[in-house]
Amino acid sequence: MPIRYLTADAVRQAERATGDLLTGGALMRRASSGVAQVVIGELRATGGCYGRRVGGVIGAGDNGGDALYALAVLAHRGVACTAVLLNPDRAHPGGLAAFCRAGGRIAETLPSGLDLVIDGVVGIGGRGPLRSAAADQFARLERAESGGPAIVAVDLPSGVDADTGEVHDPAVQATITVTFGAPRNAHLLAAPQCGRVEVIDIGIDRFGPSDGPAPRLSVLADDDVAGLWPVPGPDDDKYSQGVVGVIAGSARYPGAAILATGAAVSATSGMTRYVGTAADEVVSHYPEVVAARTLDDAGRVQAWVVGPGMGTDDDALAVLRTVLETDLPVLVDADGLTLVAAHPELVADRRAPTLLTPHAGEYARLAGDDVGADRLQAAAGLAAKWQVTVLLKGRITLVADPSGDVLGNDAGSSWAATAGAGDVLSGIAGALMASGLTPSLAGAAAARVHGHAADLAARSAPIGASALLGAVRPAVRAIREASAIG
Ligand SMILES: NC(=O)C1=CN([C@@H]2O[C@H](COP(=O)(O)OP(=O)(O)OC[C@H]3O[C@@H](n4cnc5c(N)ncnc54)[C@H](O)[C@@H]3O)[C@@H](O)[C@H]2O)[C@@H](O)CC1
Ligand SMILES: [K+]
Questions:
Q1: Which ligand is closest in space to the CA of residue 154?
Q2: Same domain for 66 and 121?
Q3: Is 404 within the bounds of a domain?
Q4: Helix (H, G, I), strand (E, B) or coil at 186
Q5: How many domains does the chain have?
Q6: Going along 265-384, which residue ranges are E strands?
Q7: Residues of the domain holding 190
Q8: HSE-up (13 A, CA, CB side) for residue 318
Q9: Would you say the ipTM is above 0.85?
Q10: Most buried among 71, 229, 327, 464, using CB within 10 Å?
Q11: Binding residues for K(+), per the UniProt record (predicted)?
Q12: For the whole model, what pTM was predicted?
């Protein structure tokens, strides 16, 4: 089942719905003991709890309360705990009392030699960058990678916007982020800033309001992707699984054609057609592709991929127009997007499923504005305006449909940031659309496999798009085999 990511408002609504649990303090007790358990796990993994040294940077709200109660639990376990209170008069009274009773020490600055630091500055109530008093405390620490203390953020790394994931400057870089009930948007949108994210069950509804305001962000679980992936059934033949047509590249620049077509061939067992002047090059790489030089000779398809390396001249525009005038699902990428930016009427009135797959530069051409700090709103806004599905590329891929639902995917690494990787993504997503998946599911499932393929191919060394393409099948296999479906 897809994992729902919540805005700060949706979290507060879910907390309020628990009634007595919220007002009686049970939620905070559960949250803080969850933080303490994660910290204990970290200390045990690196030598045990007793006699270790943990610090906390404590803000004026309930986030600081969580951290103080967690430090109290740790102090009872024999951990030497020090708290820096950023606003001593407004520190959470119950948390501060528990901390002091447990033998915790209050200091002006974090001492040196700490094993771990808890960031309890702000959580979902935070606005803007880390203020200087807090920033000074974190600036004193050596980075965790260089032997400094691990940083465990309570709920969110402070300085990161809960809803947009904007990483303000300065902001805390967390090793681990411990959150409660359900992940917040920022845990996906600012995933690299959060480190490992642990979600503690505190008894709130983890799905949030299904009819909440757009954009509503979810992430497919690996099992979802495995379950969606088309595999041939007993009655299937080469046509019944969906035929995808790829219009890409040229005789002079065949690379995009080969990569996009090869990705479509690798992603599903349905048939792949190619249309364009790179037909000979494509067939010499993939003999199973049925290639034609013109659309008239192409034959029937269930979905089109159009754009990578096709050029932006009048001929390309005519082909794009013809494809978009059909009632078939169409994925538009690269040069196709440049043409759409100049001719929005090509997609604006389209009723058939349409997926646009811009990177940030292409997005700016399409939307007439930069993506900006709020990528979620940027993708959802364009999807709503043009009533198409928009897949905004990046380390975190966002696939926004016109209704305001957004599927996100964290590639987990940036190895796929290489020339031609986008052509591979188009081929995978187009093949999935031809099999009958919606643009949104096709885009999100393709992004998951694409990111996984990049990791498998790279194994810590840089890759080009050919290596990425070669790992598409192993990535599909790994995801299917790891799930109950495989
Ligand atoms: N409501 C509940 O029952 C629960 C809340 N929980 C915790 O409570 C947090 C939310 O608590 P609050 O609503 O009190 O809000 P926060 O504690 O997140 O932040 C609010 C406080 O931070 C200050 N502030 C805002 N931006 C700042 C900045 N950039 N730099 C420094 N200070 C800043 C505000 O003036 C205010 O005093 C959650 O993130 C979570 O950690 C958990 O205990 C779970 C249960
Ligand atoms: K925090």
A1: 2
A2: yes
A3: yes
A4: helix
A5: 2
A6: 272-275, 290-292, 303-306, 330-332, 354-356
A7: 3-212
A8: 6
A9: yes
A10: 71
A11: 63, 119, 158
A12: 0.96
